[in-house]
Write a structure and sequence with these properties.
The chain is an alpha/beta fold. Helices cover 49% and strands 14% of the residues.
Length: 261
């Protein structure tokens, strides 16, 4: 299937590892020039070199802490007139109400919740001037599966779901800008290993028993990074031109299973 994405400029935050790295690889395979943002300059440069060699695409990088004062403005200036923005930077700590103190709660939301909102505000304005674009928010299924042992994340993700729906519901009609959220379940990344360890400690009393928790997942495993990244690529394409203001869940059916059980 030709997704007609070749040559479209794609900006990805949190692009140096995990799902962000997978997103960069998937979009590069479609011939998209990339503008990649993350804290780790070394990881970004290594990834950029690989993608240029493998796919012949232009890759620009910006190493920056997006929580620093003025950083979002710098990222927006770097992104410029992106055709596609993928908000992906940030992770919210696991734990229950007493495990996550106010400082950790605010730090988690500063990048993933407010970072998404503030960068979207700036990039959206540029897309509106140009006449269109696509904004994709990597959120997480915790926003629709409320979890006491991931209370900071489940609350933040729910907020981003509301933000995506509120913006995307009118943006396509008013400004030809599609806004879509993706709620991935557990994905095979280093961060998820930590999340599972926290859950195992809280629910089973032993962080080392995290592997037991994966047995209850569909197919007995988390999703792979490419399985999730490829969904973003499709949503960014014209094949998905009628999609906006919605959340696409990719969790092997876990959310649906809970809703009918």
């Amino acid at each position: 299937m030709d997704l007609n994405l070749k040559g479209r400029k794609v900006a990805i935050s949190g692009a140096s590892q995990g799902i962000g790295e997978g997103l960069a690889r998937s979009f590069a395979s479609e011939g998209c020039p990339l503008w990649l943002v993350a804290r780790s300059g070394d990881k970004l440069e290594k990834l950029a070199a690989e993608l240029k060699a493998a796919h012949g695409v232009d890759v620009k990088t910006l190493a920056i802490d997006m929580t620093a004062e003025g950083a979002i403005d710098k990222v927006a200036a770097f992104v410029g007139d992106a055709d596609v923005l993928v908000n992906n930077a940030g992770s919210i700590p696991g734990g229950n109400l007493w495990d996550v103190d106010e400082k950790a709660w605010r730090a988690g939301w500063e990048l993933k919740v407010f970072g998404y909102i503030n960068l979207t505000r700036l990039v959206y304005a540029k897309m509106r001037e140009r006449g269109g674009g696509v904004i994709l928010n990597n959120i997480g299924s915790g926003g629709e599966n409320f979890d006491f042992n991931y209370i900071c994340g489940t609350t933040g993700n729910a907020a981003l779901m509301a933000f995506t729906r509120a913006l995307g519901g009118r943006s396509l009609l008013d400004h030809n800008i599609r806004v879509v959220g993706v709620n991935a379940g557990l994905v095979e990344t280093p961060r998820i290993v930590k999340v599972l360890a926290t859950r195992a400690k809280n629910e089973l009393g032993d962080a080392g028993r995290a592997n037991e928790m994966t047995k209850s997942l569909p197919l007995g495993r988390p999703a792979t990074v490419p399985e999730v990244a490829d969904l973003f690529v499709y949503l960014a394409s014209d094949r998905s031109a009628y999609t906006s203001g919605v959340i696409c869940t990719i969790d092997g059916g876990m959310t649906s299973k809970r809703s009918i059980s």
